[in-house]
């Protein structure tokens, strides 16, 4: 067995050739970036573009292979990440970890319980992916078709279908793969006799996707027949013209069967919504009714089951900007003000302002509802306090950050921090676990720090906090720098000092509640 080598500086050198190969690869990429494409003929440029795309596909496959090896070694958990997807997104900077994990599951060679490496789920597709003949989009569309194969299909027909789709993926576009795949599915099960409840249960799903720049979210999913029938009934009785129109205060709410005929007739005349918009408004009205009736329960992880929002007072005064919900969503301030008129209110509570007990000492181990609300209202309190974690306030526990409760820690708001269940279980005294604490003063006063426990003789790891960048402050600094370059000091075009400069919008402790903000606005409105 080869022994580790030692360099001139005394630091052990890698036995693997991979780091050197990657260094060589990046050097080649630098040379490619500086190469003059103008000297290529049209035919040569086509060949260059094709070869580049093939190299990109091959590198994606190699990246998946390395992620799989990291997963087999349990490296993400050892580094303190709550899951492989969290590690891929936060540390490896993979933009769509869900899609990459699907590629891994379909084309990766997983380590079995006996220590051996198994074959890929779709071997033909894996070979084409490794050779660069197919790209990520081809793989995704092919997996979509192959995953739709009925589970009752005989094994030999499944294998033949996988080989067929693998060959098609290497010679057709993703859109064509989808069309050809549907034809293959129709050929395998023309009468739908092989599809049963097990297939429907396997494919049912519903995804609420991330918000876009307009704070809109796309809802995608596959509904089983029963759920589809229920949704259709909702649309039939709640999504009719004139019903549940948020833009019309006189629009009847609830079911069309309970609406006043004259009121409904007038509302129909005013209704300019499309059928899709009416479907959206019916779902929103149903959810509001569910919350109002308390069907979701009274408490979730110590928080009330209601819409909980924190906002900056300056944004509320300007009626512009964004607020943050306990589930991590962004809500326009205009919607916050509108909702505050008739929503069940939850104030931000603080020891100096209310009688809500925020300092429970040793009398209680679990945080109170008031403490949970106060924790959410703090800067960055909408997510887990562990570095790089984005689990929202509705999915966290309250962690005794200064000292564990079993070791004499107190259940006081100044010693508590939000922590998702996985990170909360990673705190301990063993090597590889986390130690936490609370900054009492300085720039990060009140925030919880996390530090990975190192080996006994090794230097301590640095303390880290989960602080999100202040976008307004960052943008304001770059805006000032840009203006300084375009209009140097002393020129006539220089903007007046302080004008149009964005200010820090991070919630300033203690945060203001919606109710207090509305009272402040009323006071300001009556001030000469």
UniProtKB/TrEMBL annotation:
Instruction: Map out region (Disordered) in residue numbers.
Output: 241-264
What residue stretches are annotated with the DUF222 domain? 50-376
Top-level taxon of the source organism: Bacteria
Q: What is this protein called?
A: DUF222 domain-containing protein
Q: What's the source species for this entry?
A: Gordonia insulae
């Amino acid at each position: 067995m080869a022994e580790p080598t030692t360099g001139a500086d005394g630091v052990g050198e890698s036995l693997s050739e991979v780091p050197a190969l990657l260094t060589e690869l990046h050097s080649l990429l630098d040379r490619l970036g500086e190469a003059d494409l103008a000297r290529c003929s049209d035919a040569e440029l086509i060949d260059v573009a094709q070869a580049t795309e093939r190299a990109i596909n091959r590198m994606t496959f190699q990246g998946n292979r390395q992620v799989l090896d990291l997963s087999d070694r349990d490296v993400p958990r050892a580094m303190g990440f709550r899951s492989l997807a969290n590690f891929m997104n936060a540390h490896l900077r993979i933009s769509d970890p869900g899609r990459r994990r699907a590629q891994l599951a379909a084309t990766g060679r997983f380590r079995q319980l006996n220590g051996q490496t198994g074959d890929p789920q779709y071997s033909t597709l894996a070979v084409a992916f490794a050779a660069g003949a197919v790209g990520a989009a081809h793989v995704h569309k092919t997996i979509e078709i192959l995953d739709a194969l009925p589970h009752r299909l005989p094994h030999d027909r499944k294998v033949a279908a996988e080989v067929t789709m693998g060959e098609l993926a290497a010679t057709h576009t993703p859109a064509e793969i989808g069309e050809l795949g549907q034809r293959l599915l129709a050929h395998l099960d023309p009468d739908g006799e092989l599809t049963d409840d097990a297939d429907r249960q396997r494919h049912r799903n519903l995804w609420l996707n991330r918000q876009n720049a307009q704070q809109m979210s796309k809802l995608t999913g596959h509904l089983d027949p029963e759920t589809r029938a229920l949704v259709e009934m909702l649309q039939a009785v709640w999504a009719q013209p004139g019903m549940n129109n948020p833009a019309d205060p006189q629009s009847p709410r609830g079911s069309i069967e309970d609406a006043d005929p004259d009121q409904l007739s007038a509302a129909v005349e005013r209704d300019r919504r499309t059928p899709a918009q009416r479907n959206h408004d019916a779902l929103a009205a149903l959810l509001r009714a569910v919350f109002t009736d308390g069907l979701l329960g009274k408490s979730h992880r110590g928080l009330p089951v209601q819409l909980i929002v924190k906002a900056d007072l300056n944004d509320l005064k300007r009626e512009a900007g964004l607020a943050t919900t306990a589930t991590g969503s962004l809500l326009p301030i205009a919607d916050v003000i509108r909702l505050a008129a008739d929503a069940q209110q939850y104030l931000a509570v603080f020891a100096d302002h209310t009688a809500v007990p925020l300092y429970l000492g040793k009398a209680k181990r679990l945080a109170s509802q008031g403490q949970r609300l106060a924790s959410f209202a703090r800067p960055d309190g909408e997510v887990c306090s562990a570095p790089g974690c984005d689990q929202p306030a509705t999915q966290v526990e309250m962690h005794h950050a200064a000292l564990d409760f079993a070791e004499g820690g107190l259940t006081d708001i100044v010693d508590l921090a939000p922590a998702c269940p996985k990170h909360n279980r990673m705190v301990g005294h063993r090597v590889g676990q986390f130690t936490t604490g609370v900054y009492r003063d300085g720039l990060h006063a009140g925030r919880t720090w996390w530090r990975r426990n190192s080996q006994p003789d090794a230097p301590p790891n640095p303390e880290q906090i989960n602080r999100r960048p202040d976008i307004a402050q960052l943008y304001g600094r770059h805006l000032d720098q840009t203006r300084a370059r375009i209009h140097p000091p002393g020129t006539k075009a220089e903007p007046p000092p302080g004008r149009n400069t964005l200010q820090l919008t991070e919630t300033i402790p203690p945060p203001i509640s919606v109710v207090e903000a509305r009272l402040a606005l009323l006071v300001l409105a009556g001030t000469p």
